[in-house]
């Protein structure tokens, strides 16, 4: 049997696939880069870049692991010779918000550590400003009680803040459902380009007028009901019919179980649930605590400008709030233009808290 495998740069790791004789190396890779803002927050970018010499050697090494093999490189020898020897360390490419929070719990300051590769000032300042906005640090950059709780959770600080805040509104159970899905490694809602109408109809069943977070919550609860009443095959068919990624549900369930254990450690009731008529406001307020720094207001020209900084963003067409002219909270990722990935529509009282 002839195998043709399309691989990302994950294939550079020590994975051996039996029968591989040939490797075609494009000389390119997708690499995540964090662009910090000293005003707080920042952007994850996914850029196409030239690979390094070490990556090229790793790619060639995938061929002929069990015998002779050939690597075809789709670039010139001069291009290879001009490549960097190795890649940029991840500490220089990622957000430091979670790392600084953890260092603060250990009584350490990143600025004072003697690092082999020291991040630039903007990245450190962005992380510190974000932690201050979340209430994890005070004006003197000292860890607050809330910050100490947040550091215990194996989550991005923004999501950890939402979980901690949920205790105040007695809606931790619902917030854990949402945060677990948002922390999963793959998308929940699948997009199928040749079935857009069917996808829209299926997704409409879960849409919530208050935003994408409550839409996610609706989907989680619907899947949980199906899982409790039906077998494995029926669950898969239900997910297929509604264009939902079951792998995300399963991963989110494991994440949630871990978060429940963590809640016990910090004395948060993971089963807390408000009255049904109060749940929407409680959940939106809790998520607002964690994502308040990622908010944007509608401009006269129909675009949105973040409340902190001057960055212009655009609401993603797949968002529940695509047609709503209200302040939005979002998770930001840079592409050819900035598009909102996770929206929420808080009430005015929630935005003022």
List the helices and strands and how they pair.
Blueprint: E1 22-25, E2 28-36, E3 42-50, H1 53-60, E4 70-73, H2 77-82, H3 97-105, H4 121-133, H5 145-152, H6 157-169, H7 172-182, H8 196-204, H9 212-229, H10 232-241, H11 246-265, H12 276-291, E5 295-298, E6 304-306, E7 312-313, E8 328-329, E9 332-334, E10 339-340, H13 348-352
Parallel strand pairs: 1-4, 3-9
Antiparallel strand pairs: 2-3, 5-6, 5-8, 6-7, 9-10
Helix pairs in contact: 3-4, 3-5, 5-6, 6-7, 6-12, 7-9, 7-11
Describe the model.
The protein is an alpha+beta fold. It folds into three domains: 9-88, Rossmann fold (3-Layer(aba) Sandwich); 97-152, no CATH class; 168-352, no CATH class. The protein has helices at 53-60, 77-82, 97-105, 121-133, 145-152, 157-169, 172-182, 196-204, 212-229, 232-241, 246-265, 276-291, 348-352; strands spanning 22-25, 28-36, 42-50, 70-73, 295-298, 304-306, 312-313, 328-329, 332-334, 339-340. The strands form three sheets. The protein has a four-stranded mixed β-sheet. A hairpin with a 4-residue loop joins strand 9 (332-334) and strand 10 (339-340). The termini are far apart.
